[in-house]
Amino acid sequence: MKVLLATEKPFSAKAVDGIRQIIESAGHTMAVLEKYTNRCQLAEAVADVNAIIVRSDIIDDQIIAAAPELKIIVRAGAGYDNIDLKAATAHGVVVENTPGQNSRAVAELVVGMAIMASRNNFDGTTGGEISGKRLGLQAFGQVSRNVAKVLGGFGMEISAVDPYCPADAMTALGVKPVDTVAELYAGNDIVSIHIPATAETKGSIGKALIESMPKGAVLINTARKEVINEEELASALENRPDLKYFADVKPGNAAELTERFAGRVFFTPKKCGAQTREANLNAGLAAANQIVAFFADGTDRFRVN
Ligand code: 3PG
Questions:
Q1: Domains 2-101+276-297 and 103-267 share a fold
Q2: pLDDT confidence bin for 154, thresholds 50/70/90
Q3: Distance set, CA 67 to CA 44, 63, 150 (Å)
Q4: Is 210 helix (H, G, I), strand (E, B) or coil?
Q5: Does 19 have pLDDT greater than 90?
Q6: pLDDT for the residue numbered 210
Q7: What whole-number distance in Å separates Cα of residue 59 and Cα of residue 187?
């Protein structure tokens, strides 16, 4: 079988070597397409492959249709909103993710952003401590659980809302379950967003929620930019000069926000929550092992379609 590793944002060299070793020792071949700049390159590269490993690379119906031999796509990471599941299913292609493999890296970025915002971007002015403050986690998946473990150690008072997660998974980590998103935003000094981008969540965080946050609050988004209503975010930051928005997922109006709210907004130049050597290795090797298992005996434990 031929496996393509297609990453516009490449994995570390060590992760690529590790992926190759797993694929080739199972008797398959591997091709690599990194830092590609247009979709035609991707469409050409998938023409004869049986499996694809991607990160946030967009795999839409056009790419799937250009890959007649394709059997499986593995998103080396958690969120799979970049893959057209309907098109994959229609073409008989299995889609999997690698849950939990890069979540510690993203959690550490959340911790870094929480401290950076509380210390005024390390600009030398008097900041605040996060210890003893209230942290709200919107959704309680793998990233949130890692954030809770680390920031619980800082003495933060942590609560979370997640209709899909049983309350005892939260209480086991010392996290207080709350019933509504409104309650979470209104009751926390820092709110960290960890919801996926779905039809239901897109644009769901707007003016009302953001303006309900307590004085001096910080909103952190290392999830997906689509979950924010960007126009309403701008208006909330205008109305509430005490609020901050830090994100690993640059909003469409990033330039405008940076100009209007200097020091109160921060955006990584390129999405980098999962961009650590460790996360690259964990997610990349997991993806390779999942493909080998799938071709060996049809194992599809992490199937999402
Ligand atoms: C994920 O969903 O796993 C994260 O957002 C990381 O995405 P990336 O692989 O594009 O860095």
A1: yes
A2: very high
A3: 9, 7, 43
A4: helix
A5: yes
A6: 98
A7: 39
Q: What is the CA(238)–ligand 1 centre distance, in A?
A: 30
Segment 152-166 shows an average pLDDT of 98
Cα(132) to centroid(ligand 1), Å: 30
Q: Is there an atom of ligand 1 within 6 Å of 291 CB?
A: no
Residue 249 has a pLDDT of: 87
Other C-beta atoms lying within 10 Å of the C-beta of residue 48: 13
Choosing from 81, 102, 250 the residue with most ligand 1 atoms within 8 A of its CB, the one to mutate for a pocket test is 102
Asked if residue 56 has its Cβ within 6 Å of ligand 1, the reply is: yes
Tell me which residue has its CA closest to atom 10 in ligand 1.
56
The response to whether residue 97 sits with its C-beta less than 6 Å from ligand 1 reads no
CATH class of 2-101+276-297: alpha beta
- Every domain of the chain and the residues it spans: 2-101+276-297, 103-267
The SS3 of residue 129 is coil
The pLDDT tens digits of the residues spanning 188-206 come to 999 999 999 999 999 999 9
98 lines ligand 1 (CB under 6 A): no
Give the other-Cβ count within 10 Å of 61's Cβ.
Answer: 13
- The CATH number of the domain covering residues in 103-267: 3.40.50.720
